[in-house]
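Reply to dn_fold:

You asked what the input looked like. This is it:
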Amino acid sequence: MTVHRKEKTGFRIVFLRLRTIGAILMEEIITRIYGLVSAALSEAPTPTLGSICVIQEQAPLH
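and this is what came back:
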């Protein structure tokens, strides 16, 4: 029983590490995509898209 529990905690640590790495990568990807989208929207001629972009930029990402 103790060996099984040990394996479970080891797997849990690895899973948590992978999850944090995945979260960091996802955040970076989202911020890059967000930067591209906001740049594209700021170049758009319609003022509504630009104002929406500004409102979204002021809001916190987390």
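The first helix runs from residue 2 to 43.
Hope that clears it up.
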